[in-house]
# Entry
Amino acid sequence: MLQRRNSKQRLIIREFLKDRYDHPTADKLFNEIKEEHPNFSLGTVYRNLLFLTQIGEIQALDVGDGSTHFDPNPLPHAHFFCKECKCVTDVKMDNYDEICKLASTNIKGQIQRCSVYLEGICQHCLKINKNSSNKKE
Ligand SMILES: [Zn+2]
Ligand SMILES: [Zn+2]
# Structure
Protein backbone atom coordinates (compact mmCIF):
# COMPACT_ATOMS: atom_id res chain seq x y z
CA MET A 1 0.00 0.00 0.00
CA LEU A 2 2.74 2.41 1.03
CA GLN A 3 4.86 1.29 -1.87
CA ARG A 4 2.01 1.94 -4.27
CA ARG A 5 1.39 5.43 -2.96
CA ASN A 6 5.10 6.17 -3.21
CA SER A 7 5.30 5.10 -6.81
CA LYS A 8 2.25 7.18 -7.69
CA GLN A 9 3.90 10.22 -6.16
CA ARG A 10 7.07 9.41 -8.02
CA LEU A 11 5.15 9.33 -11.29
CA ILE A 12 3.74 12.79 -10.61
CA ILE A 13 7.18 14.19 -9.76
CA ARG A 14 8.62 12.62 -12.91
CA GLU A 15 5.84 14.21 -14.93
CA PHE A 16 6.60 17.67 -13.51
CA LEU A 17 10.31 17.41 -14.24
CA LYS A 18 9.97 15.86 -17.70
CA ASP A 19 11.18 17.84 -20.75
CA ARG A 20 12.38 20.77 -18.67
CA TYR A 21 15.54 22.74 -19.22
CA ASP A 22 15.25 25.17 -16.32
CA HIS A 23 16.87 22.83 -13.76
CA PRO A 24 14.41 23.51 -10.91
CA THR A 25 15.23 23.07 -7.23
CA ALA A 26 13.16 20.76 -5.01
CA ASP A 27 11.49 23.88 -3.55
CA LYS A 28 10.44 25.17 -6.94
CA LEU A 29 9.05 21.79 -8.00
CA PHE A 30 7.25 21.41 -4.70
CA ASN A 31 5.56 24.80 -5.08
CA GLU A 32 4.33 23.85 -8.54
CA ILE A 33 3.22 20.34 -7.56
CA LYS A 34 1.29 21.42 -4.49
CA GLU A 35 -0.95 23.65 -6.60
CA GLU A 36 -2.39 20.50 -8.14
CA HIS A 37 -1.61 18.04 -5.36
CA PRO A 38 -2.01 19.73 -1.97
CA ASN A 39 -1.22 16.47 -0.14
CA PHE A 40 2.43 16.54 -1.26
CA SER A 41 5.12 17.53 1.21
CA LEU A 42 8.53 19.02 0.42
CA GLY A 43 10.10 15.95 2.02
CA THR A 44 8.24 13.66 -0.40
CA VAL A 45 9.39 15.68 -3.38
CA TYR A 46 12.97 15.77 -2.13
CA ARG A 47 13.14 12.05 -1.29
CA ASN A 48 11.78 11.07 -4.68
CA LEU A 49 14.16 13.39 -6.51
CA LEU A 50 17.07 11.83 -4.62
CA PHE A 51 15.79 8.36 -5.45
CA LEU A 52 15.52 9.18 -9.17
CA THR A 53 19.05 10.63 -9.01
CA GLN A 54 20.38 7.48 -7.32
CA ILE A 55 18.91 5.19 -9.97
CA GLY A 56 20.44 7.42 -12.64
CA GLU A 57 17.18 8.57 -14.22
CA ILE A 58 17.83 12.24 -13.54
CA GLN A 59 20.85 14.19 -12.29
CA ALA A 60 21.36 16.49 -9.34
CA LEU A 61 23.45 19.63 -9.86
CA ASP A 62 25.32 21.65 -7.31
CA VAL A 63 26.10 24.92 -9.04
CA GLY A 64 27.30 26.60 -5.87
CA ASP A 65 24.20 28.61 -4.97
CA GLY A 66 23.43 26.48 -1.94
CA SER A 67 20.49 24.62 -3.53
CA THR A 68 20.43 21.36 -5.44
CA HIS A 69 19.02 21.69 -8.94
CA PHE A 70 17.49 18.75 -10.77
CA ASP A 71 17.87 17.91 -14.44
CA PRO A 72 15.70 15.30 -16.21
CA ASN A 73 18.61 14.69 -18.59
CA PRO A 74 21.03 12.28 -16.86
CA LEU A 75 23.68 12.47 -19.59
CA PRO A 76 26.81 14.50 -18.85
CA HIS A 77 26.63 18.05 -20.19
CA ALA A 78 27.95 21.46 -19.18
CA HIS A 79 25.88 23.98 -17.22
CA PHE A 80 25.91 27.75 -17.00
CA PHE A 81 24.81 29.44 -13.80
CA CYS A 82 23.76 33.10 -13.75
CA LYS A 83 24.81 34.84 -10.55
CA GLU A 84 22.14 37.52 -10.97
CA CYS A 85 18.89 35.61 -11.62
CA LYS A 86 20.20 32.21 -10.42
CA CYS A 87 19.05 30.48 -13.60
CA VAL A 88 20.83 27.32 -14.71
CA THR A 89 21.01 26.58 -18.43
CA ASP A 90 22.50 23.81 -20.54
CA VAL A 91 25.63 24.56 -22.52
CA LYS A 92 25.92 22.67 -25.76
CA MET A 93 29.48 21.45 -26.29
CA ASP A 94 30.24 19.09 -29.13
CA ASN A 95 33.50 17.87 -27.62
CA TYR A 96 32.50 17.57 -23.99
CA ASP A 97 34.26 14.20 -23.75
CA GLU A 98 37.54 15.87 -24.64
CA ILE A 99 37.60 17.52 -21.20
CA CYS A 100 38.03 14.13 -19.58
CA LYS A 101 40.76 13.21 -22.02
CA LEU A 102 42.60 16.48 -21.32
CA ALA A 103 42.42 15.89 -17.59
CA SER A 104 43.23 12.20 -17.70
CA THR A 105 46.87 12.85 -18.63
CA ASN A 106 47.33 14.41 -15.17
CA ILE A 107 45.17 12.01 -13.20
CA LYS A 108 46.67 8.66 -12.33
CA GLY A 109 43.39 7.27 -11.07
CA GLN A 110 40.23 6.63 -13.03
CA ILE A 111 37.85 9.44 -13.94
CA GLN A 112 34.24 8.36 -13.49
CA ARG A 113 32.35 11.56 -13.94
CA CYS A 114 33.07 14.95 -15.40
CA SER A 115 30.95 17.93 -14.35
CA VAL A 116 31.41 21.33 -15.91
CA TYR A 117 29.84 24.35 -14.24
CA LEU A 118 30.32 27.77 -15.73
CA GLU A 119 29.34 30.87 -13.83
CA GLY A 120 28.58 34.37 -15.02
CA ILE A 121 25.76 36.67 -16.08
CA CYS A 122 23.16 35.45 -18.55
CA GLN A 123 22.13 37.22 -21.73
CA HIS A 124 18.87 38.35 -20.19
CA CYS A 125 20.52 39.91 -17.11
CA LEU A 126 23.24 41.53 -19.20
CA LYS A 127 20.52 43.30 -21.15
CA ILE A 128 18.78 44.49 -17.97
CA ASN A 129 22.10 45.74 -16.54
CA LYS A 130 22.85 47.58 -19.75
CA ASN A 131 19.42 49.22 -19.83
CA SER A 132 19.56 50.33 -16.20
CA SER A 133 23.06 51.80 -16.58
CA ASN A 134 21.91 53.66 -19.70
CA LYS A 135 19.10 55.24 -17.76
CA LYS A 136 21.47 56.52 -15.11
CA GLU A 137 23.56 58.42 -17.64
ZN1 LIG B 1 20.45 35.94 -15.34
ZN1 LIG C 1 21.16 20.31 -17.85
